[in-house]
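User: Please predict the structure of the protein below. I'd like the answer in structure-token form so I can feed it into my own downstream comparison script.

Assistant: Understood. Taking the following sequence of 171 residues as input:
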Amino acid sequence: MSTEERKRELAKGVVSALKAAEIDFVVGLPDDWLNTAFHEIREDATLQYVPVVNERSGACVCAGGWLGGKRPALLMEAAGLLMATEALVRLRPFHIPFLMVISYRGDLGDGNAVAVPQGEALPGVLDALQIRHVVVRDPAELEQAVTGAQLVLEMAKQPYAVLLGKRVLVS
């Protein structure tokens, strides 16, 4: 199987996991690791996709989607969480639940030295924001993590982050 075929297979796994969690509204800004997943999302007629110019806007669009009766997910890279932080803090008192699917740049096997500090900081940033999170490094565990996160976030009425390691998205 070629690298592109493998990426497409993994991207279909992301879409399948979102659909298993009954997500119907996907917001995001593609990055290198999530690009193929965004392509698959745009091709799926059952998922409404809203592109945004930054992740702060994405968090706000997810909030609007939830208020409008949608089940939203925000897809972004690790650095995007820093962009979204201000919006996430301001939304917290309103108990608006949405899923965040984050490419875990700087995690095991990334190979990008610039991303390593992001990977080191990401769990601590989520903890400081009081956002529950789980790391998925095996594609076989993706659907269970996403559906489990969706169940918890709906009960807690707060966002939940699923961090995707490289093996889940690109190889």
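That's the full token string. The helical segments are 3-20, 35-43, 55-67, 78-91, 116-128, 142-156, 166-169.
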